[in-house]
Input
Amino acid sequence: MTEVGRNVTKIDAFKLARGEPVFTDDVHPVGMLWAKVLGSPHAHARIVSVDATRALALPGVVDVAWHAQVKAIPHTRAGQSHPEPSPWDTVIMPEKARFIGDRVAVVVAEDLATAEKALGLIDVQYEVLPALTDMDEAHRRTDVLIHEVPDPRGIAEGGRSNVAARIDKQVGDVDAALKTCDHVVERTYWLPRVQASHIEPHVAISWLDEDGRLVVRTSTQVPFHLRRILARILEMKEADIRVIKPRVGGGFGDKQEMVMEDLVALMTLRTRRPVRLEFTRTEELICARVRHPQRIVMTTGVMNDGTIIANRMQVTADTGAYGSHALTVQGNTGQKVLPMYPCANIHFQVTCLYTNNPISGAFRGYGAPQGCFALECHIDEVAKVIGMDRLELRRKNHIRLGDTDPLSAKLGEGKEGLVRVIRSTGLEKAIELGCEAIGWGRKRPPSAPHLKRGLGMALAMQGSGIAGVDWGAATVKLNEDGSVNLAVGATDIGQGSDTVLAQICAQELGIRYEDVRVLSSDTDLTPFDVGAYASSTTYVSGGAVLKAARLVREQLAAMAAERWKCAVEEVRFGAGLVNAGPDRTMTVAELASHALYHVKVQPMATASHMSNESPPPFAAQFADVEVDPQTGEVFLRRFASAVDLGTPIHPDLAEGQIEGAVAQAIGYALFEEVIVDAGGRVRNPNFLDYKIASALDMPEMITILVPTQEPSGPFGAKAAGEVPIDGPAPAIVNAICDAVGVRAYRIPVTPERVWRQIKEAGE
Amino acid sequence: MKIDVRLNGRDTAWEAPAGATLLAVLRDGGPNPARMISVKRGCETGDCGACTVLLDGQPVNSCVVAAGRAHGHEVTTLEGLAADPLMISLQKALVDHAGVQCGYCSPGMLISLYHLLRECRAAGVRPDDHAIREALSGNLCRCTGYVKPVAAAAAVAAALEAVQAAAPGKGTVAS
Output
């Protein structure tokens, strides 16, 4: 192995470091209009009338659109594979606003300042309706319905209740099993609303090309899903829409959704001119997507020796105004988490409610960070109740090689899934290496006498793509000088997938990574891919690249065998050479030239790949904290992650995934929360009041890759993107509990919350 | 309003609406021909640092600086440092340490690190890990967890120290 496993230069790194014009907003088409959206000031209100006369009279304003002028075709903006498991509860411009910031009108003008000014000149009459911002109230009440019309495919309960999704799946019989257990431990955990906070906001620019086709250049994770959704709601042919994804300034799931592309497309079609829309940070924190807030009740039945007999997880979640990802995020909360401790009796229940709060959606981890927080805190609680060491309890019960996962078979992605068998795991090794790195069992003394020190740990697992659903395709084309053009639908959003896919291609063809050029995510020019989500790109799209490269290699081998009059099986590839024995050698370039000018065939192949498996990557994560009991302040000193993501294709980029995920999860644990008041208004929509981790907030970071060989993955690879975001919050909270003896059941663990708990415990 | 500014070493005249921010003029251009697109828009409240530029050699968040403030002053963006050896070495180190993920915050980070290392070089000191983190604390990055960007800056700082130590007549540099 030479190209795979090597820390090659990330394919786009230099142009990014030079600040070259590579992002959506960096190039403006001639004659571009600037769009702004008028958001609802009410959490729940019927839009009675819209009068844009004064706005349209403002010099520079070109067009204003609102619900009365736009055909209402129900859809979901979730950006998922067809058939989408999210309810079709959305239209481009709603006639009823369902959260503060919901779309009321969209303006386009010759410049941004004019567009902004025009918003204040649109006269809107609202009929204000009672707002439901508490999920339990939303559950109880059927007199106020946030969605009054049933969604056409019957996924949500629109028209009957405010329930957006329900799940109730059971393996074995938990109630019966609990009666046989030595101990039953029940606790409730609360998870906050947090935001992905990619530094590049949502931004999209659309225009009509010289043939009148719609072009949308956008910061998206799902170019092909986007094209499909746009075609349906704009009533166009897919071939008349081209979606181009340039470099993307971070996505983290928040750019899986069609947050704004329909608006720029609509206004381009209305005005026949290029249109640009970009969210401000305030709009991001109000109108983009947030991680679902949840309340999770964990009930665990356990024997005195630590054997877990039964596990029940009951999730109540707030999907906000629309149900994008309502079913599947919550499904993941159990599916990606409960299998960590296999037992005969598992019960998983979800009730996900519509409210008049900001829209919840996809965010890295996709439900698993919530579930992992509850389960991994709960394991510490169970250990305390039965008087067992918390590491020993985990080691006794965690999933092992060859284990099956009956829950995932029952759940799938909104339908019955496939049986999962663990065919690679480095979890035991990860636990061992993580313990060693953090000094488990050898707690360091506090750095000052007034501080208390504690260690905590958590285990996590995720998936590698959605089994039986996610797929991608790749085209490999060999040029006469031996260089390769690789076209993939897979979507590089900064994680480095273009680089990793080029490495996989080079490895299989026995050429250098530097000889591969990647074209990704342009719906006109590349084959299909579901996009960058569900930790799928290396594992699923990488599998497509591997297949396509293998097909080209077979074409080349046949040509070489023909030329050398030898058997195809004798032809070998490597180090840029093709040979069949010592005296029959040529370079790949010579063979390519032979193909193009002698055989007159283009060595080229397109291959598609889907996996019926979703092998979980595993993580063992450890926190070393100090707490000041006088102030409640938490100092995270060191954080160690030992992660089995299969064979890393690019170890530095894999580490980067872990380090970035840990930074986001530290915010989840300690300080991030989008605060929404009882009226549905976001109280902290800016980076001063919604704080994300800076360089000074980071602990000493220890990141350990634990390589395994996943038989179903390209060159043994599994996924890296999501699993490391799951464990930090529970590990940190478990460490705080170890330090000061009180447990936070709610994150973020702000100094005030810690201080109050310590005070209450002392009283 | 008319603003005379020395932009990246060239005398430049901007036309800008009253109240325009330095970011808006640099990035969006408006009636001005040059778009300095390395200057990124991230928050417009001075909190994320994606729009960091040098104003008379000092790093500022251009989203909270009035464009008029630049009248008669010198503004330097990443474009203006394209041939600067220190900036080139910082860019290379950031790339080599895999410190670029999505790259949206990279230009702002590089401006902050450039300022730090130039000041440290002038003072003859080598910044430690904490000094690097302080210099980066105004540049929010959601991808990297800062581990690799900090390592990249430390590597450049170490190389600078080695060069200075080897330079005749400079003496040893305290760390």
